[in-house]
Amino acid sequence: MGPIPLCVLLSVWALAVAAEVNTLDDDYTWPQWKVPLVRKRRTVQLSSPDFSAHLPPELSGTCGIECQRRLPTPSLDDLEQFLSYETVYENGTRTFTSVSVQGLNEVTAWTRNASSNSRHKREVYGTDTRFTISDKQFSTKYPFSTTVKISTGCSGVLVSPKHVLTAAHCIHDGKDYIDGAQKLRVGILKEKSRRGKGGKGRGGRGKGRRRKGDKGKEEVEEKEENEGNGDRKGKGRGRKSRSRRSAESEKPSFRWTRVKQTQIPKGWFKGVSDGLAADYDYAVLELKKAPKVKHMDLGVIPSVKKLPAGRIHFSGFDDDRPGNLVYRFCSVSEESNDLLYQHCDAKPGSSGSGVYIRLKEPGKKKWKRKIIAVFSGHQWVDVNGNGMQQDYNVAVRITPLKYAQICHWVHGASNECQVA
Predict the structure, then answer these.
(1) What is the dihedral of CA 135, 136, 142, 144, to 10 degrees?
(2) How many Å apart are CA 225 and CA 212, to the nearest integer?
(3) What CA–CA distance (Å, rounded) separates 246 from 19?
(4) Pairing state of beta strands 325-335 and 131-133?
(5) Which conformational region is residue 174 in: left (phi greater than 0), alpha (psi within -120 to 50 degrees), or beta?
(6) What is the CATH number of domain 6-191+253-416?
(7) What is the C-alpha to C-alpha distance for residues 97 and 42, in angstroms, rounded to an integer?
(8) Domain range list for the chain
(9) Which residues contact 204 (CB under 8 A, 6 or more apart)?
(10) 387 in Cβ contact with 401 (< 8 Å)
């Protein structure tokens, strides 16, 4: 599926969220979780990494849902070891931080969900349901603007003004850091400068009016629909100016920012968590400079399949559509405590994308998007633990423990991470 006109994409988007928007039931609100606390115990200096690994095209040997059921439940000591982490700084130095986990018994039960019998092939099968968002006036607006490109070839999502959540395998292959991770950069799609040809005269003032008109609107769909209607109504100079801007910038451009430090859980490393390594395929990058882009908060949900349509959404920079932002949505076919199995059409490059859903805020009628998982990508899964492997698209869920750790990385102070 190639580039889609904005009006068509808006119509499809409206149909995709219709069930969610019309389901004004209090059952579909963001649950409030009391999460455990992850605190620093000790930090030691390590030798500098070699940065000799290469980004794997796909992951193999992942212990799937049935396989994981045969593994013993991790103890508190195990969890503290898995959640301990390495930090790599922009100058190439590295530290290891051990952690303690407090209040784990106070967390609301995180029930294990039964898997279904459905099995799906990965990447693109049948009709390609991905949408290329080629209109920069749309791709640079929330929620798409939260998606970033990682210089190692993956995607990521802004979860704070200065922090990006991505997949750990985009930075580290389990044994060493990826070549290029030492000079890691994050790219954000940028609009054409308003001081250019397209920003002069009435065109520039017109864009100002649209921004003022959008101010105060909480729902993204309302913003997108209003902007779309404005484009259709503007048959004069505004529409001509927009066409000229699109023609002048055929290739999307990025604003690149250096990464100050990278943090990866020890559970991702080879030989630490055995068959649970895929559960820790996430990392957080701290940027040297905060981009002026709205971020998306993290959320914790016990079951995705019980939501309206069980549908998830994410955008990334798929390799087969270079430089373009690619959006998709699909239903989850299976889920475990830590992993989501789905059949969203995807290609390499989308790994690390933020998987989000949309629920109502508690006590309000307003809907809000939150990141509930990190898209890991195509994996060969050991389904039953007998060596027989099957391919899936896999996403790593944000659990209460992972929320506590990521929040700890982002804020530093654990007192800001007690409720999800």
Answers:
(1) 70
(2) 15
(3) 33
(4) antiparallel
(5) left
(6) 2.40.10.10
(7) 6
(8) 6-191+253-416, 197-227+239-248
(9) 194, 198
(10) no
Quote the CA–CA distance of 272 and 393 in Å, as a whole number.
24
Runs of H (alpha helix) within 134-236: 136-139, 201-214, 220-233
Coil, helix or strand at residue 116: coil
pLDDT tens-digit profile, the chain (420 residues): 555 555 545 454 554 544 444 444 556 889 888 889 999 999 999 999 999 998 877 777 677 777 777 788 889 999 999 999 999 999 999 999 999 998 887 665 554 444 433 334 445 545 566 666 666 556 678 888 999 999 999 999 999 999 999 999 999 999 999 998 989 999 998 765 544 444 444 444 444 444 443 443 333 333 333 333 333 334 444 444 444 444 444 556 899 999 999 999 999 999 898 778 889 999 999 999 999 899 999 999 988 888 766 789 999 998 888 878 889 888 888 888 898 887 788 888 899 999 999 998 888 878 899 999 999 987 777 666 666 667 778 899 999 999 999 999 999 866 677 777
Give the C-alpha separation, 352 to 338, whole Å.
Answer: 16
Chain centre to alpha carbon of residue 235: 37
Amino acid at 2: G
Q: Which two tokens stand for residue 405?
A: 């750790």
Query: Which DSSP letter does residue 167 get?
Result: -
Place of tokens 């898995």: 82
Token readout for 267 is: 């559970």
Among 365, 353, 339, which Cα is nearest to 62's?
339
Q: How far apart are CA 389 and CA 289, in angstroms?
A: 43
**What DSSP state is assigned to residue 174?**
S
